[in-house]
């Protein structure tokens, strides 16, 4: 199945009348083998004129022009660059395959087969507002602290915001599971045989400076002096730079107040809006009932 991306991005590198891509120049092809979430594919409205392209789809997408006796951008040039740029942003964001290329419009709000859960709609509305007001200079964006039970859609919603911001505005985003992608990545830099040996500062700076950061599964990390300090430094640095941080957790925010993370708590209170998801485990919808 192909998804027309004209609602998800302002890019218009295709033919304006093309019904397939809505003028974007590429589409999202879903159910691609080896990928759950699909892949971007050049639309035929760009590709059909590109049969002379000597670049064969490889950068820098130029063709030789006889009349001018020089290389000129192929008709596919801008569309391919846009695709490559988006793919690069998605890859750098480290969004897991399951949640890649998912948008606000592709989320199930429950109309079809069960009553929409109010808490999910509140969170979805909040996300919608952040995404649509992002470029408005008068809008002061805020992060969220989204918590709730397993399968309630926290990781999905957080990643949807990243995808939307990438496709709409080309924002530099990053997704990180608190343990695997952040704390362990930093701990690895102390190992002499690690590829990232000695790069602690570099990695920390990357997480601190990216425009929008998702910290997934906040609260699963062990309480330790090292973990608390590294998380405090990260949150504090994003707090000072007024960067947007989206956290997901299985626990309410005030659980951190009394713990070693008290100083993190007070910053998160200011940087984020706490939203609780009360929906049932979505994963169970597809698990046949046992008798
Ligand atoms: N409203 C929804 N529409 C479509 N898919 C959904 C929705 N809610 C959840 N899902 C899907 O259900 C699965 C579980 O959602 P998700 O991974 O976001 O849960 P979670 O709240 O992060 O759970 P955990 O606490 O276990 O990490 C995912 O495959 C997700 O894509
Ligand atoms: Mg999750
Ligand atoms: Zn097209
Ligand atoms: Zn071409």
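^ structure tokens above, recovered residues below v
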């Amino acid at each position: 199945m192909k998804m027309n991306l004209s609602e998800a991005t302002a890019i218009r590198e295709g033919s304006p009348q093309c019904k397939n891509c809505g003028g974007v120049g590429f589409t999202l092809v879903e159910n691609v083998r080896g990928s759950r979430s699909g892949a971007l594919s050049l639309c035929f409205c760009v590709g059909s004129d590109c049969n002379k392209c000597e670049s064969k789809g490889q950068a820098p997408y130029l063709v030789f022009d006889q009349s001018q006796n020089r290389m000129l951008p192929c008709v596919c040039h801008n569309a391919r660059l846009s695709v490559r740029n988006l793919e690069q942003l998605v890859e750098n964001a480290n969004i897991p395959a399951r949640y890649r290329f998912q948008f606000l419009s592709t989320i199930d709000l429950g109309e079809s087969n069960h009553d929409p859960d109010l808490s999910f709609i509140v969170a979805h509305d909040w996300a919608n507002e952040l995404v649509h007001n992002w470029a408005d200079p008068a809008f002061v964006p805020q992060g969220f602290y989204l918590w709730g039970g397993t399968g309630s859609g926290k990781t999905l919603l957080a990643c949807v915001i990243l995808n939307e911001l990438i496709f709409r505005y080309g924002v530099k985003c990053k997704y990180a599971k608190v343990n695997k992608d952040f704390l362990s990545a930093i701990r690895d830099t102390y190992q002499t045989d690690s590829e990232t040996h000695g790069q602690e500062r570099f990695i920390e700076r990357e997480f601190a400076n990216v425009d929008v950061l998702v910290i997934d599964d906040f609260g699963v990390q062990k309480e330790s002096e090292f973990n608390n300090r590294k998380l405090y430094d990260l949150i504090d640095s994003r707090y000072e730079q007024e960067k947007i941080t989206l956290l997901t957790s299985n626990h309410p925010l005030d659980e951190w107040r009394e713990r070693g993370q008290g100083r993190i708590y007070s910053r998160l209170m200011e940087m984020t809006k706490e939203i609780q998801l009360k929906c049932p485990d979505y994963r169970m919808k597809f698990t046949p009932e046992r008798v």
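The two ends are 35 Å apart (CA to CA).
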